[in-house]
Amino acid sequence: MSQETIKFAYWVPNVSGGLVVSKITQRTSWDIDYNRKLAQLAEQNGFDYALSQIRFTAGYGAEFQHEPVAFTHALLAATTKLKVIAAILPGPWTPAVAAKQLATIDQLTGGRVAVNIVSGWFKGEFTAIGEPWLEHDERYRRSEEFIRALKGIWTTDNFTFRGDFYRFNNYTLKPKPLQQPHPEIFQGGSSRAARDMASRVSDWYFTNGNTVAGIKAQVDDIRAKAAANGHSVKVGVNAFIIARDTEAEARAVLAEIIAQADPAAVHAFGDAARQAGQASPEGEGNWAKSSFEDLVQYNDGFKTDLIGTPRQVAERIVALKQVGVDLVLSAFLHFQEEVEYFGRHVLPLVRELEDELAAQAEALAV
Ligand SMILES: Cc1cc2nc3c(=O)[nH]c(=O)nc-3n(C[C@H](O)[C@H](O)[C@H](O)COP(=O)(O)O)c2cc1C
Questions:
Q1: What 3-state DSSP class applies to 82?
Q2: Which of 71, 118, 191, 234 to mutate to test the pocket of ligand 1 (most atoms within 8 A of CB)?
Q3: Residue 231 to residues 126, 189, 221: CA-CA distances in angstroms?
Q4: How far is the CA of 33 from the centre of ligand 1 (A)?
Q5: pTM of whole model > 0.90?
Q6: pLDDT tens readout for residues 221-259
Q7: How far away, in angstroms, is 60 Cα from ligand 1 center?
Q8: NCBIfam families under this entry (predicted)?
Q9: What architecture is domain 7-365?
């Protein structure tokens, strides 16, 4: 278990409809005023990171989408400590453009930008914008080259690279990012190809929600592979958090979200998501085994089961930490008010439990 405190991130609602495919009332908005205030509340309430989303179009929910790099910059400008992770899709973005954009944002914001390289799962979106759709594992081969190119541009002068997807000739980026050696590189995706990529090049591996046992299996696999490659990678897990004063209240909210799920939209999302994990050669990865109820939250966030009283939620977070999780990526029904509730009622309990565990470990070591 890491000696560091577990970190918290939240999904930036820069797309409409919140983070559940349900008609339930959500006091969450995708506009910039709501998001600036949310980012400020999040940093005041102990959140370390915010993650913006990339989506060019949507056939279900998420009808409106703000572009994440521009949005990330706006949130960084409105905050002082929070790190904001901008999602980027290889294909529409090239590494040269991304490296330049992010280096400038890093310079303008005192070194607080990070990037999430996502490999794409939504074929309809690529078709709509006239981008070629690569088959599953090819998408990860391209993402890996993208990450290698980003690192090369950010850390060396006269960068030369001969890949199958990208080429660089003696390229020197000036100025480089403020953060050394470079802004943190996250990746989304959990198939075999995604894990192998993380074990070679990513700083962080983000995966869909899952049980503690399911997460442990991924963590063990990825850490063993990374060690064999002389690389180290941290792990972030998605969770839709419903913390309420009583467990009954929290469970009732979950039941209501699912009761009001929009079946046509959930099925459309489930169909599109078959281009992800299920399309991988091994048939694993994100959404490969998701039920209708799981799909109501875009990234299987109910499965992590951070649903209950503050103490129950805190105990489950610490259980995740004990199997090697470094960060919980959270989503909420009513973001602003629930981020505050989390900071006030859940986070102090997490820190207490972490201290207790550290003291126990120390006592055992003596
Ligand atoms: C935490 C997280 C965030 C993601 N963010 C985005 C995003 O903003 N846009 C997007 O198109 N895909 C996003 N993805 C999808 C992944 O990039 C990937 O395409 C998907 O998880 C399928 O991966 P797999 O087939 O390797 O399991 C995200 C995935 C995760 C786990």
A1: coil
A2: 118
A3: 32, 18, 13
A4: 26
A5: yes
A6: 999 999 999 999 999 999 999 999 999 999 999 999 999
A7: 16
A8: LLM_DMSO2_sfnG
A9: Alpha-Beta Barrel (3.20)
